[in-house]
Amino acid sequence: MTAYVPEEVERYAQAHSTPPDPVFERLAAETRATQRSPQMMVGQLEGAFLRFVVAMARPRLVLEIGAFTGWSSIAMAQALPLGGRIVSCDVNEETTAIARRYAAQAGVADRIEYRVGPALETLAELDGPFDLVFIDAWKPDYVDYYEAVLPKLAEGGTILADNTLFGMAPDHPLRRFNEHVRDDPRVECVLLPIREGVTLIRRRP
Ligand SMILES: C[S@@+](CC[C@H](N)C(=O)[O-])C[C@H]1O[C@@H](n2cnc3c(N)ncnc32)[C@H](O)[C@@H]1O
């Protein structure tokens, strides 16, 4: 994993943010023990950030592209307003089963619908409107996810795209995504250097 933020800064920020529910310690331990790329979890700081964004935005419908073992969906679900729900998609049955199990342990299973299948196919079946979208799946497809999601974004809705600092590498697919979004006159965006970079995008008012 590339560390964009110095480790001591990350540690200090984590130590001065509200600690996560203990369920995330168990989720992380199982993910580390069973998965080849456990670093794909959003982790403590970004999880807390997503939870905070949901608490502020009060979305009725959230779409997540890339569930993995569930950290981000569960963190967001914990902050949903009454009646709010998340549709989270992933291609991997095994990791989705882990996510479902921890969502139940965290008491948010009734707010998250995990769908297994290629994200672009799942997206084609969904009408929205999405108040919040978290993109965190296959990096070469980010532009396609974005283009599929933008017409289904609710008035005042926000898209968050993860790992966007990867685009600093000249040959990384997120470079094209970052330029595509920055140069899109339909939206405004801000790339925040949280962990591996999170870009917030909204349609221009
Ligand atoms: C970085 S991980 C997501 C991490 C997750 N947000 C978390 O907090 O733990 C990326 C996920 O995208 C999934 N993925 C890859 N290609 C996909 C596709 N075409 N459609 C849906 N999911 C895909 C992978 O199976 C993987 O679980």
Q: Largest beta sheet, briefly? A: 7 strands, mixed
> Helix and strand succession?
HHHEHEHEHEHEHEE
Put simply, the count of helices is: 8
Strand content: 15-25%
Q: How much is the radius of gyration in Å?
A: 16 Å
| Assigned CATH class | Alpha Beta
What is the β-strand count? 7
Q: Please mark out the parts with pLDDT under 50 across 5 or more consecutive residues, or reply none.
A: none
What's the CATH superfamily, by name? Vaccinia Virus protein VP39
Trace the largest sheet across and list its strands.
3-2-1-4-5-7-6
Averaged pLDDT: 97
Helix/strand structural class: alpha/beta
Number of domains: 1
Distinct small-molecule ligands in the complex? S-adenosylmethionine
CATH topology: Rossmann fold
Keywords:
205 residues, alpha/beta, Rossmann fold, seven-stranded mixed beta sheet, 8 helices, 7 strands, 39% helix, globular, binds S-adenosylmethionine
Report what the structure shows.
The structure is a single chain. The chain is α/β, with parallel strands linked by helices and 205 residues long. The chain has one domain: Rossmann fold (3-Layer(aba) Sandwich). It has eight helices and seven strands. Strands 3-2-1-4-5-7-6 form a seven-stranded mixed β-sheet, with helices on both faces. Helix 5 (93-105) links the parallel strand 2 (85-90) and strand 3 (112-116). It is globular, with a radius of gyration of 16 Å. The N and C termini lie far apart (37 Å). The model has no long low-confidence stretch (mean pLDDT 97). Bound molecules: S-adenosylmethionine. S-adenosylmethionine is lined by residues 40-42, 66, 68-69, 71-72, 89-92, 95, 118-119, 136-138. S-adenosylmethionine (SAM) is lined by residues 40-42, 66, 68-69, 71-72, 89-92, 95, 118-119, 136-138.
